[in-house]
Hints:
By secondary structure, this protein is an alpha/beta fold. It has three domains: 145 residues, HUPs (Rossmann fold, 3-Layer(aba) Sandwich); 121 residues, Serine Threonine Protein Phosphatase 5, Tetratricopeptide repeat, CATH 1.25.40; 143 residues, DNA Cyclobutane Dipyrimidine Photolyase, subunit A, domain 3 (Orthogonal Bundle), CATH 1.10.579. Helix content is 47%, strand content 8%. The protein contains 20 helices and eight strands. Helix 1 links the parallel strand 4 and strand 5.
Amino acid sequence: MSTAGIQQERVRHLNHRGPRESGEYVLYWMQASQRAEHNHALEYAVRQANALGRSLVCVFGLTDGYPEANLRHYAFMLEGLADVEKGLRRRGIGFAVRRGSPDEVALEAGRRAALIVTDRGYLRHQVRWRENVAAEAGCRVTQVESDVLVPVETASDRREYAARTFRPRVSRHLERFLVGLGTTALRRPSAGAGLGGLDLSDPGRVLEELDLDRGVGPVGHLYRGGTRAAKRLLRRFLEEGLPGYASGRDQPHAGGVSHMSKYLHFGHISPLYVALRARGSGAPEEDVGAFLEELVVRRELAVNFVRYTPNYDSYSCLPEWARSTLEEHRGDSRERVYTRRQLEEAATHDPYWNAAMVEMRHTGYLHNHMRMYWGKRILGWTRTPQHAYRTALYLNNRYFLDGRDPNSYANVAWVFGLHDRPWKERPVFGKVRYMSRSGLERKTDPGAYVRRVERLTGVSVSGV
């Protein structure tokens, strides 16, 4: 079932064509798994190139119009792609970042390819790109899944109701997929096969040439993109944050989190590498277990949701019970009502919520417990649940480095009842789970959190 760490379930041929006999090289069309190590798609491509007696080249399609992406996202991504170029060069693999729609870039680079190998994405445009390439390429196109621990269809063949239903399904397969992935040497090194590409030695110049939303700036002074930066943060977390994680992870002022979500989003680090390092860290078993719950169960539940929910970014994706109870309370009087602009400018009466909005605007990050509070308050302060949903998703995708991700869509929908159950009925929220300011104060130290955000951002946080 596996060949040196590449399980059969990860591999799917997207068309019925065979390799092109006249092909000059094997092409790895990198799009989701933006890394040169611990990458099942890359290693599969190397092995195919060796088997066919060809060289291997890698291409990435850089589109100006990626949905909802802005300067912040592109800057972080390009830092990571510069790491990819260096890592592939060390392995003798040519790499080109070419500007254009990713599917068109892949098809152009694939005209002289014996075989096209690609990684996997779950959002509708990512799926469409791969379908287009599979339909139009003159050779076999093979997809290899590398950004989840357990391939999504292996874990479950349906949309799961909640973590409690998904956990046993994914857990029964986990040990089989938690195995190291070896690195295969390329027998016929390449220099890029004349594919050209952008100069990644100066990401700033590349950014200047792209037609981007420049309203949200980069955060490279806090978080740099790329595999090297991800591994540095992971080492620090394993030493300082993982011991005690089970009891301390819900404290937003403490900083005992991994910060891996942004790197996982761009594929700069492998979830397999993260999981294996956590397991081998020597941290207490309960802390490793709590971390793997987030990395595997919660993260891959979000992938399950997007995979089996065509309308994953719409209010209509919510469970029927949640939409019904919110509709019943649609006309309830709100404590306060804020416009989207007021929310975006952190101009509410609640200093805790304002601190959360300031942190995400200035850093591209927000602790998960504060994300939940942030989203629940938007539901309570907006005239309709539909408008609250659109507002939360807009702000999430605009400011977070890990926005526009399966976790983004699942986590925003969770605020409105997804992957949850009915609770005690109350105004506005109906039977959807409620989170209050007093509850935040009881479970965490939001005052310390506010002070940390003020130190970090230099912005004074207060309630209006």
